[in-house]
Write a structure and sequence with these properties.
This protein is mainly α. It has helices at about 15-50, 55-60, 75-100, 105-130, 150-160, 165-190, 195-215, 220-240, 245-250, 265-290, 305-330, 345-350, 355-365, 375-410; strands spanning about 1-5, 10-15, 65, 75. The two termini are about 30 Å apart.
Length: about 400
Amino acid sequence: MTMAKENNEIIFHEIDQKEDRWLKRVFTDETWGGIFLIVAAILAFGFANSLMSEWYDSFINTKVGPESIGLRMSVSHWAADGFLAIFFLVAGLELKHELVHGSLSKPRQALVPITAAIAGVLVPAAIFVFLLRDTPEYLVGWAIPIATDIAFALAVLAVAGKHLPAALRAFLLTLAVVDDLVAITVIAVFYTSDLNQGLLLLTVGLLALYAVLQKLNFTRWYFSVPLGFMIWWATYQSGIHATVAGVAIALLTRNQTFKNEKKAPADIAEHLVRPISVAIAIPFFAFTAAGVDVRGLSIAEAGSGISLAVVLALFIGKPIGILLSTYLITKFTRAHLSENLTWSDVAAAGFLAGIGFTVSLLIGELSFAPGSDENAAAKIGILLASILSGAVAVLLMQGRRLREKKKNKVKS
């Protein structure tokens, strides 16, 4: 959501045409990504609860890759550490775009989406911790409900909210990107074990080299791709989750054009990599992570309250945090909603942010041992919360559309 200074006030305003074109392309791509993601998750859940369950379990646990460089990993491990790095590279490029050209380019413009994103992180985490305060062994999963699934949420918005103002779409994108930046920071800080300082220094050195090459305009793919793989490998071997490499590379990629350049390297990279992310990386991770076998599984066996904590944190905590923080900003500062936005629209964005899915599943994998009852409970909670959040968001958006139809009929 962009804002402009007008009569010394901060106004939730419409975005400019250039940003609108960029958003439309992003929404088109992410809509397809969301569809692929949902199909992949349904297939995974179906395989895990059918006669194909043994094949599915065998597939995601099959180890592939060269052992000589420490990359002999299971298919599910590759999906989480390798394929999701591509997803976070795109998320990082989106964040870089917002920082340079979009809602985060000026402090006044960044105030609302950043505040809403932070509140949308703190409230769900607090709800999760409060509900599981008597079972401290489960509190390791406190970060599961903090993130928003960009592809899933934008797909729902693109399908059910076409009539909504573009400013709300920009707000949701910015909110989701900031959420994911917070999530990846949390992963780097709280879910890192056995840190190898030598390889961490190598990672920092390679990132510095990448930044210098960007400044010197050595941005051809035959420089960038091998160096990017080396950064990813060094990050993974250092003990930090490898997806952090995607965001780090994205933030160091130049987003401003040099003389005689038609497009900045960040724009080129985002345009080339996004289709790989939405069509391959995210669906593949969803297929390997969403296959939880619920046959004969009781809530008690599945982790005693973890599912409920995740559902309430995402489904209730996200919209409360986002809606309340936005209201307080408009109440106690000069910010206010523009005429074409309603509080119902902001509530819809809050529920869309409750679709945690991809990043929540990743943090669930890092919090609880794969295959454990706790891990299964977290997955069930994430799936339920995502479905409930998406459904309520659609109802709110359709309610707005019907009210507008009714109003137009009265006018005519």
